[in-house]
Structure to design on (84 residues):
């Protein structure tokens, strides 16, 4: 599936300028982690922002961050699954 802005929520930020986001959808993590998945929100996100990705189909939670950001491209680092 494609990115839907309604599935991305700003949780908060730190005093250092980084923001924490939560993205929740049935999209597989491999799709969410693909380059430019978050491009529709490129003006809201910044390099270093943390993203909690919730794959509601599995359900699994991943933690990643924006590792590359320009005016025309955005990508995230390979994330880690949160396990018990």
């Amino acid at each position: 599936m494609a990115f839907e802005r309604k599935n991305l929520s700003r949780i908060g930020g730190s005093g250092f300028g980084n923001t924490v986001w939560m993205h929740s959808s049935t999209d597989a993590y491999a799709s969410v982690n693909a380059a430019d998945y978050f491009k529709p929100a490129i003006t809201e996100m910044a390099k270093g922002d943390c993203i909690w990705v919730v794959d509601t189909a599995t359900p699994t939670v991943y933690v990643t961050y924006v590792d590359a950001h320009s005016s025309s491209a955005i990508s995230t680092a390979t994330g880690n699954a949160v396990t018990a």
Notes: Residues 29-32 form the longest helix (4 residues). The beta strands are 8-13, 19-25, 50-55, 60-69, 74-76, 80-81. The helical segments are 29-32.
